[in-house]
Design goal:
Helix content is about 35%, strand content about 15%. By secondary structure, it is an alpha+beta fold. The strands form three sheets. Strands 5-6-9-8-7-10-11 form a seven-stranded mixed β-sheet, with helices on both faces. A four-stranded antiparallel β-sheet has the order 1-2-3-4, with no helix packed on it. Strands 12-13-14-15 form a four-stranded antiparallel β-sheet.
């Protein structure tokens, strides 16, 4: 392929293989004969010189089959930026490396073959899924898996929650779980369900993963039931999600004792899309995040004044679902489903892999996270986590401007710029509500603690401490090894799991999600000529005609030609340009 020559088979049987150049009368040839004592062929004649004329050389190499190209690109299938190689990338690489022009259809087939070489096929993945689940539970004690199939043995659902994650959440995490679903981009499509929390260092802490056909009521109810079986009963449990009706119905049925809240970012985007008012969404976000009832009422009055329909929409959604002040349980500092969205972003590449390969990709990712974060937690120099320590430092800076008046040994009055708050260090409360809602000291509590020379770490909940973070990642996640080394009972190894009946839509799957109205970027346009892709400083077009009232600009501020120093044109359109060159 590098020399841009092709060959064809002149003779091929059980004893002889004879290859010649595709161009007639060329001297290149290879002849091999089978040895008597085995299945090997011995090369008897090989002329490695071509006598083909250059005009006869073909650029579309017949030996560059999809299988050969797939074997070439398999080691570098995933590029440096984490993106999967595309057919057009394969076409460009084959042209650069071998000088071969590859058709798009052949590049697509080569990509699929390289994927099957590297990550296995979907059929093999579903076949090995029961054995994978068994070995995963044996290697990682406490792991919970669940594989559901239909009556005809076709795949329906798969649930996976590692024992290290279950233990870490129950012992060391705040009882707030963000749930979300995202599309799988493989051959059979489907949906991946994610349940995540956030550790004391503001890092994503995955709890469970599920795979189903779509985001319907049955699939969400199944996933939440598996999650309840893995976690058990959690006091003061709070769920955060978008406004998907099936999520809300599933939580109310499976976790009747838990509190379901909605993501304030999604809620604000819904209001922006419905009422086409960015200022309304901004006010909505402020009143959702505030800790004070007074500020909440002030924002609601402002919302009612700006848009009555948006006010009624917020009331109908239920302030107890989107407002921090009216939430029955503590949401701490988690007001969005960003921790779940981060997991979806980390698995952007893996979501197109076969099912068992995707599960192994997640296990390997969590194995690395647990190791790296455990080492990072042990190297922290403060009693609090690094993220919590930075928040304390920012709040301590405000304490220098506060006036603290003791009321008794534990109660203090803190004043700043005409405002006054009451802090109780024994009950760990403050009239700003931050102290008791987050279990983390506010700036007023830090000012009061300074008055009594108290260590500020004693005011923080255990969730934010270094030792708790070390404990959360102390149990490592073990690998499962290669399938050839698995020791699985015969009843599990012989279980039949067939491909699901559903398939994704034809065509190339979308790599990214649809951007909301607030995320769409605007195209830059020139204010001189009105066209895009350049600005007025680099504009060489004539100025656009404004039919409205014009504004007179003094000549000393107008742009002049650098050749003739006249006004109204530049050096590119100067009439004296040719004479100057001559």
């Amino acid at each position: 392929m590098r020399e841009n020559f092709e060959w064809k088979v002149k003779r091929s049987n059980k004893t002889t293989l004879h290859l010649v150049c595709i161009i007639d009368n060329c001297t290149w040839k290879l002849r091999a004969v089978r040895r008597d004592e085995g299945t090997y062929f011995q090369v008897r004649s090989f002329v490695n010189q071509h006598s083909c004329p250059l005009e006869e050389v073909h650029r579309r190499h017949r030996q560059a089959s999809a299988v050969i190209i797939g074997e070439v690109i398999a080691p570098r299938l995933q590029q440096h930026d984490g993106r999967l190689m595309r057919p057009k990338d394969i076409i460009a690489d084959m042209k650069t490396m071998y000088g071969i022009q590859v058709m798009y259809s052949k590049a697509h087939d080569a990509l699929q073959y390289a994927l099957s070489l590297t990550y296995g096929t979907h059929e093999e993945s579903f076949k090995l899924l029961p054995s994978f689940a068994y070995v995963l539970e044996q290697q990682n004690p406490g792991t919970i898996t669940d594989l559901q199939c239909a009556d005809d043995d076709t795949f329906l659902y798969f649930f996976m929650s590692l024992g290290s994650s279950i233990r870490g959440f129950r012992r060391c995490m705040r009882p707030v779980i963000a749930v979300d679903g995202t599309h799988l981009k493989g051959r059979f499509g489907g949906t991946m369900f994610v349940a995540t929390a956030q550790d004391g260092n503001e890092q994503v802490y995955p709890i469970a993963f599920g795979y189903g056909d779509s985001e319907n009521n049955l699939s969400w109810e199944w996933f939440l039931e598996c999650l309840r079986g893995a976690l058990g009963h959690i006091d003061d449990l709070v769920f955060i999600s978008d406004r998907h009706v099936n999520i809300e119905a599933g939580i109310s049925k499976v976790f009747p004792y838990a509190t379901h809240t909605i993501c304030c970012w999604h809620f604000g985007e819904n209001m922006k899309k419905r009422f086409h008012r960015k200022d309304v969404a901004d006010i909505m976000d402020s009143e959702a995040r505030t800790y004070s009832e007074f500020n909440y009422n002030r924002h609601m009055e402002e919302l009612h004044r700006l848009h009555k329909g948006a006010f009624e929409y917020a009331i109908a959604a239920g302030p107890h679902k989107w407002s921090r002040v009216h939430c029955p349980q503590r949401r701490y500092r988690l007001m969005t489903t960003n921790v779940a969205e981060c997991i979806n972003s980390c698995l952007k590449f893996a979501r197109q892999l076969p099912m068992m390969t995707l599960a192994e990709f997640i296990r390997n990712m969590l194995q690395k996270w647990f190791h790296d974060r455990h080492a990072a937690a042990r190297s922290m120099r403060h009693q609090l986590t690094d993220a919590a320590h930075l928040v304390i430092l920012k709040r301590v800076e405000k304490c220098n401007y506060m006036t603290v008046n003791p009321i008794d040994w534990n109660i203090f009055s803190v004043k700043l710029k005409g405002n006054q708050w009451t802090v109780n260090l024994h009950l760990k409360t403050c009239t700003c509500n931050i102290f008791q809602m987050d279990h983390f000291p506010c700036s007023h509590a830090l000012a009061a603690a300074r008055e009594r020379n108290l260590d500020y770490t004693s005011l923080c909940a255990d969730y934010y401490k270094r030792e708790t973070l070390i404990d959360a990642y102390s149990f490592p996640i073990m690998p499962v090894g290669h399938p050839s080394s698995w020791v699985v009972p015969s009843d599990i190894a012989s279980r039949v799991v067939l491909n699901p009946k559903s398939k994704r839509q034809s065509g190339r799957p979308m790599e990214g999600r649809h951007a909301s109205s607030s995320e769409r970027t605007t195209t830059q346009s020139c204010r001189r000529c009105g066209q895009s892709r350049h600005n007025s400083r680099r504009c060489s077009n004539p100025p656009m005609v404004n039919e409205g009232p014009s504004i007179s600009v003094p000549d000393e501020y107008r742009r002049k030609c650098s050749i003739c120093h006249s006004i109204g044109h530049n050096k590119q359109t100067c009439p004296e340009k040719d004479s100057t060159v001559e």
